[in-house]
Design brief:
The chain is α/β, with parallel strands linked by helices and 330 residues long. The chain contains 14 helices and eleven strands.
Length: 330
């Protein structure tokens, strides 16, 4: 059993990574149904929250069926972050996660996200102040370091633990790498195997197959894995990994019926939550993976991602179901 504070999780839990414009309530619901043990919101700007920015406030929406659910925040200003904690607490999440890993320039340029990896003392002091400001468990998501010459993740993890961080998820790349090259899990394993560490250490980066998750567990000895890009348009990834853990065999791929049903539900939930325009627009990125592997599908995929009204998209789903209903996914 793995624990984040008082939250009890199964051995080697699978966590849905916070992803901008991806891990919203509709997608989190689908992932939860398919076996995600913990889900996280999209990352939320502390400055946006304290300005009452509509998009930031909307990201605070969480639902009972998602629990345990974490709200992820980012920022570099202590006063703003503490005010943010007070706002976030009103949504009653199970966990508050601090993003110290986002490599995007507009975040880093403000000293937030992975930008704070240039100032470890600030990273630690911010975490300590936030821990003291709430009774909710505080966790951290970060990267190995700013660049290959400044990797101090063992020291960083120790210090974060020492000021009260309840778990740490580490992406196996530096900020300089962005998402290029291969994720290096070895330093994450060194954090976990540090005899001073007693909080859960989760690995993140390049878990794209059930075998990857097994390696992270068995070869690297980590406490769980946080999965991001492999789940986009593929919420079934969680159940596939868990099936592989139990049996050592690959689960059959979702049927066309399952995929169509998920795509329809995803789109409808997105519209119900964020309205027609955004609901249609922000589910588009999932369609490539929902229907990945179907030959001669480009025309239909193009229609899905260029049709501006939901009625039109639902009609494309209907056509696909009629045309490819018997297709078997390998």
């Amino acid at each position: 059993m793995v624990k984040i504070g008082n939250i009890k999780l199964p051995d080697f839990p699978l966590l849905l990574a916070p992803m901008e414009d991806v891990s919203d309530p509709p997608f989190r619901a689908l992932c939860k149904e398919q076996g995600a043990d913990v889900v996280y919101t999209e990352f939320i700007s502390s400055e946006g929250l304290i300005r009452d920015a509509a998009k930031s406030m909307m990201k605070l929406d969480i639902y009972e069926k998602e629990r345990p659910v974490g709200i992820q925040i980012f920022g570099a200003n202590l006063e703003s972050m503490l005010r943010t904690i007070e706002i976030v607490e009103q949504s009653q999440p199970d966990i508050i996660d601090i993003n110290f890993g986002c490599p995007v320039k507009k975040v880093v340029s403000k000293g937030a996200g992975a930008g704070i990896l240039k100032d470890i003392d600030l990273m630690v002091s911010l975490t300590e102040a936030i821990v003291k400001h709430t009774n909710l468990p505080i966790t951290v998501k970060t990267r190995l370091g700013w660049d290959a010459d400044s990797i101090k993740i063992i020291e960083v993890a120790e210090r974060l633990q020492d000021v009260g961080c309840k778990a740490i998820a580490i992406h196996g790349r530096t900020r300089a790498q962005l998402y290029k090259g291969d994720a290096n899990w070895e330093p994450i394993s060194e954090v976990k195997n540090n005899p001073r560490m007693h909080i859960p250490v989760f690995g993140n980066g390049d878990v794209t197959t059930p075998e990857d998750a097994v390696r992270m567990r068995d070869e690297y000895g980590l406490d769980g894995c946080m999965i991001g890009r492999a789940t986009i348009g593929n919420p079934w990834f969680f159940r596939e990994v868990k099936h592989y853990f139990k049996t050592g065999k690959h689960l059959a791929k979702p049927t066309m019926s399952e995929r169509i049903n998920a795509a329809r539900r995803h789109l409808q939930m997105a519209i119900d939550w964020k309205g027609e325009r955004l609901g249609v627009f922000e589910t588009r990125r999932h369609y490539t993976n929902y229907f990945k592997g179907i030959p001669h599908f480009k025309e239909y995929r193009t229609q899905m991602v260029t049709t501006d009204d939901s009625e039109g998209v639902f009609k494309v789903f209907d056509t696909v179901e009629k045309e490819f209903g018997d297709f078997i996914f390998e």
